[in-house]
């Protein structure tokens, strides 16, 4: 238990980094960390460095594992399963693909054109931006393991049920015809050396960092502002746990935005610290990552409006249920 606590505090929460930034703010910048400016600066520097360190290490590790499972090999594995088992595997596959919703859509096209059931590809499409191993550990570092694990479980359930429902409704006819006619090369996987896999992992880290760094900086900045400058009474008056519409409002506000889950986590952290229900904060985070307007526009290019509306409706309903459930039982996890 002592070792687990130490790892949680020093590796995930990085208390050593918090203490180092504390000294930096006070001794170098000459600011009191109890003041608004000092506290904001501490929040910003600490969260930015922590997120980038965790993100780099996790993406590198996950990418190394991914190098053993290229898309064609993954398609063959998934093709051996049917029904809800295939949906579960599709959702689990999404957890080891650290992509935003827009980046997941090319893989969705590849899987669909390769002959995988549409429900399985939608299970992947839901879980990939919503639940991945990196976000799980970041959630644990910001909140705790109970919330992180609960978030993963409900995210996977949403992905499996959503994909299964789309499969049951037999909506294949609402996928654009060019997706099915898109050719997929069935070539033997080239044997990669350890050096090749390490190089691939490094490239993945750099590629993802390039895509998300701005969202992280903006997200942490918003989080610092909420945490130190916006009065708690203002936040709770709009998104307080006693407001029945808080989850609905957070979901609606999140949809037009576009950010990676790593950029929304600091905002969720700040909202919860101001008295917002954990379910409301998670609903906002899930809406931004799974239902962002840019990803819906991109998805519209490959599916017809009927399927797009059904997909968005399923995910929105799932997010609302999850948000209200976490608000009702959030005390168990905090």
Provide a compact summary of the structure.
The protein has 334 residues and is mainly alpha-helical. The chain has 17 helices and no strands. The protein has one domain (2-175, 196-332).
Overview of this structure, please?
This protein is mainly α. It has one domain (2-175, 196-332). It has 17 helices and no strands. The two termini are 19 Å apart.
Q: Shape, please? A: globular
The value of Rg in angstroms is 21 Å
Structural class: mainly alpha
Low-confidence stretches: 184-188
Q: Number of helical segments?
A: 17
> H/E order of the elements?
HHHHHHHHHHHHHHHHH
**Annotation, overall tally of beta strands:** 0
Strand content: under 5%
Biggest sheet layout: none
Number of domains: 1
Question: Mean pLDDT across all residues, rounded?
Answer: 81
Record keyword descriptors for this entry.
334 residues; mainly alpha; 0% strand
